[in-house]
Specification:
about 0% strand
C-alpha cells in the first residue's frame, strides 16, 4: 500500500514539475521572441518589450561596432576637446576647479593626467601663435564636429532615418553645441561650488545640513540625466518626444553614474599595475570606459526609440525572413494608401499613422516607403502648413499609374543584364519566363491602383481638409 502511495506521490510530483517546466519554457519563449507577435497595447506587454530591447541592445553586435568606432573618434578628439574646455575655463576663472575635478576622478593616474594636461597646454600655446591660430581652431572644430556627426549618424541609424542634417545645419548646430555645452557644464560646476560656499554656514546646522547636502548631491545626478535626455532629444534628425527622451536619459544617466563609480573605485586597485606599465596602465582602462559609455549611450537611444515606437519591433523575427511576394504586397498596400488619399483629397499620412491605422509594423512601412521613394513612386511632403511632420504622397500621376507599371518597377529594382552572354546561353529559360510574365503585365496594365479599395480598421472622422 505504501509503495502505491509513494509511486502515486512521485508521479504527481513529476507531473507538477513537468507542468512548471513547461510554463517556464513558454514564458521564456514569450519574453524572448513571442512578445513581438503580441499586438496588445498595455503596460505589461510594453514593459516586457522594453526590457527585451534593453537586453538585446547590450548584446547587439552592431551597437558594439558603433561604440568601438565612436571610442576611436573620441580618443582622437580628447585633446582638442580638453583644450576647448580649458580655454573657456580660463575666461571664466574655473581652470583650477575643472583640473582638480579631473585629478579627483582618477586618483591612481596622476602621472597620465599630468601628461595629458601638458599636451593641452602645448596645444593651446601653439594654437595662439602665428599661423597656428587659424589651423588650430579649424582642427579643433573639425575633430569635434566629426565626432558629433558620427554620433548623429549612429542615432539616425537607430531611428531608421535616411537623411541627416545638411552641411549648413551641421556647421551651425554642431558649432553651437561644442561652444555652448562646455560653458553650461562649467557654469553648472561653478554654481554647485558657489552654493556649497554660500551655504557653508547652513551646512553646519544639524537639521538643515543633511537636506542641503542631499540636494547638492542630487543636483549632479539630475544634470547627468538632463544631459543624456538632451542628447536623445536634439541629436537625432527627427522629432523625439521629451517624455521618452527623459526616461531614456534617466536610465542611461544612472547606468553612466554606476559605471563611473565602478571605474573610479577601481582606480585604487590599478595602482599595482603602474609599476609594470607606468603611465600606459591608464590607456586600456580609458578605452574600456569609453567603449562602455558609448554602449550605454547607444542603448539608451535604442530604449528612447523603442519606447516612442514600441510597435516598431513587432513581428521582428518574421520580418527578417519575410518572403519577397509578401514584401511586394506590403509595398503595394503602402502605395495604394498614398494614392487613394490623394485621389480622395484627404490629408496624407505619416509612416506612424499608416502603421497605427492599418495595423502594419512600422518597420515594414518605413522600409517600404523608403524603397518606393528611391524608385521615384512616392515622396515625403509636409503634412500640413506649419507642421514639422512629413507624410507620404504619390510622386506619379494617380490617374494613369497602373498595377502593371508598379510590378515592372519592383522587378527592375537593382542591377541587371550585367552577366556577359547570359541571354544567349539561356534563351529558352528567358522565353519561358517572359511567356508567363508578359501576359500578366498586360492584364495588370488594365488595373489602376487608384481603383483599389482599402478596408480601414479605424474610423475616419477628421481626415478631410
Amino acid at each position: 500500500m505504501k509503495k502505491k502511495v509513494t509511486k502515486k506521490n512521485t508521479a504527481l510530483l513529476a507531473s507538477r514539475l513537468a507542468t512548471v517546466i513547461g510554463k517556464c519554457k513558454r514564458a521564456y519563449t514569450y519574453f524572448t521572441s513571442g512578445v513581438w507577435s503580441d499586438t496588445r497595447r498595455n503596460w505589461m506587454v510594453d514593459t516586457v518589450k522594453t526590457l527585451n530591447l534593453s537586453v538585446r541592445s547590450f548584446l547587439n553586435g552592431d551597437l558594439q561596432v558603433r561604440a568601438a568606432a565612436l571610442t576611436y573618434q573620441t580618443l582622437l578628439a580628447i585633446v582638442p576637446a580638453l583644450a576647448l574646455v580649458f580655454a573657456i575655463c580660463r575666461g571664466f576663472g574655473f581652470q583650477n576647479l575643472v583640473q582638480s575635478q579631473i585629478f579627483s576622478a582618477f586618483p591612481a593616474q596622476e602621472q597620465a593626467i599630468s601628461t595629458a594636461m601638458s599636451f593641452v597646454d602645448s596645444y593651446l600655446s601653439q594654437s595662439s601663435e602665428g599661423i597656428f591660430v587659424g589651423v588650430g581652431i579649424l582642427f579643433l572644430l573639425w575633430t569635434l564636429i566629426s565626432l558629433i556627426s558620427s554620433v548623429e549618424y549612429s542615432f539616425n541609424k537607430i531611428w531608421n532615418i535616411q537623411q541627416g542634417r545638411t552641411i549648413w545645419r551641421k556647421v551651425t548646430d554642431y558649432t553651437a553645441i561644442v561652444l555652448i555645452l562646455p560653458i553650461l557644464i562649467i557654469c553648472a560646476s561653478g554654481i554647485t561650488v558657489f552654493m556649497s560656499s554660500a551655504l557653508q554656514g547652513a551646512l553646519n546646522l544639524p537639521i538643515i545640513s543633511p537636506l542641503l547636502s542631499g540636494i547638492l548631491d542630487c543636483s549632479s545626478v539630475v544634470l547627468v540625466w538632463l544631459f543624456f535626455a538632451g542628447t536623445y532629444l536634439l541629436v537625432p534628425n527627427t522629432k523625439v518626444k521629451f517624455k521618452n527622451a527623459f526616461f531614456a536619459g534617466v536610465l542611461a544617466g544612472t547606468a553612466f553614474l554606476i559605471l563611473q563609480w565602478l571605474f573610479v573605485s577601481g582606480q585604487v586597485y590599478v595602482t599595482r599595475y603602474n609599476a609594470i606599465y607606468g603611465s600606459f596602465a591608464f590607456l586600456p582602462l580609458l578605452l574600456i570606459w569609453l567603449q562602455l559609455v558609448w554602449l550605454i549611450t547607444l542603448s539608451g537611444a535604442v530604449y528612447c526609440y523603442s519606447s516612442q515606437n514600441i510597435f516598431e519591433f513587432s513581428f521582428s523575427d518574421k520580418i527578417t525572413d519575410i518572403a519577397e511576394e509578401y514584401r511586394w504586397r506590403i509595398l503595394l498596400a503602402v502605395m495604394t494608401i498614398a494614392i487613394r488619399r490623394f485621389v480622395e483629397e484627404k490629408k496624407p499620412l505619416t509612416d506612424l499613422q499608416i502603421s497605427l491605422r492599418y495595423n502594419l509594423p512600422i518597420s515594414l512601412v518605413t522600409l517600404s516607403a523608403n524603397r518606393l521613394i528611391n524608385e521615384g513612386l512616392m515622396m515625403r511632403v509636409v503634412q500640413s502648413p506649419g507642421s514639422d511632420e512629413y507624410a507620404l504622397s504619390p510622386a506619379v500621376d494617380p490617374s494613369t499609374f497602373s498595377l502593371g507599371e508598379f510590378l515592372r518597377r519592383m522587378m527592375k529594382h537593382g542591377t541587371s543584364q550585367f552577366i556577359p552572354g547570359f541571354a544567349r546561353r539561356f534563351v529558352k529559360t528567358n522565353e519561358a519566363l517572359d511567356s508567363v510574365i508578359n501576359p500578366s503585365f498586360a492584364q495588370a496594365d488594365k488595373i489602376l491602383i487608384s481603383s483599389l479599395t482599402i478596408n480601414d480598421i479605424k474610423n475616419e472622422t477628421t481626415d478631410r481638409h
